[in-house]
Amino acid sequence: MKRLSIFIYGALCYAATLVTFAYTFLFLGNLGLPRTLDSEGSATLPGALLIDVALVVLFGLQHSLMARPGFKRRWTRIVPEAAERSTYMLFSCVALLALFIAWQPLGGTVWEASTPLARRLIYGLYSLGWVILLLASFLINHFDLFGLRQVWLQLRGQSYRPLPFGTPLLYRVVRHPIYVGWLLIFWAAPTMTAAHLVFALATSAYILVAIRLEERDLIEAHPEYANYRERVPMLVPSLRRPTADTTRVATGV
User: Which of 10, 26, 86, 191 has its CA 20 to 30 A from that of 148?
Assistant: First the structure.
């Protein structure tokens, strides 16, 4: 019964993640919601700016601290180890939805695409960001990344084994294609308001910090990652052809 309960919990967390992703797509793209990232401003500028930055910082702290190995070791004394990733995703959903609900539009336009063609092209880049994000997640095992593989294995009574280090497809071009997708999503805005610019700058800064923390953990878990980091660009593809060392799939630890 405990195994089934953990699996149901993980499945519900995964469903909540999908719903949050769908809402994020609409909220950031200003699509079909009564209140979005670029809604008209209603609060005073200093107060709204302070709230918006605090919301991004809060999300960043949750997203990074709960991903650290030291936190996971302590956290799994409270939650079942198989449910740790699912719980991480659930807390991420809560933090992200709190950001959307409490977000304070600032008003003011930084730039705006002036023609229908330009708007379609920018929305195309926005959609491309989501495609890259989802594709990159499936390349490294989408269901492990979102916690569903862990609860499925424990339901079947099988021990969880971490995935081996590998560099499939997009990971041969840049080390962090998921973050590349997010950056496209954040910046591809046909209408860039002051609030959207604050959001894009703050989240981009968070990504740069998160990469440093993540790569430190990856080197500890996969020593071969140090060589991979030297050979493959972080976010911007290189014009040089990758060498054999960057295209191989590692055997793991």
Answer: 26
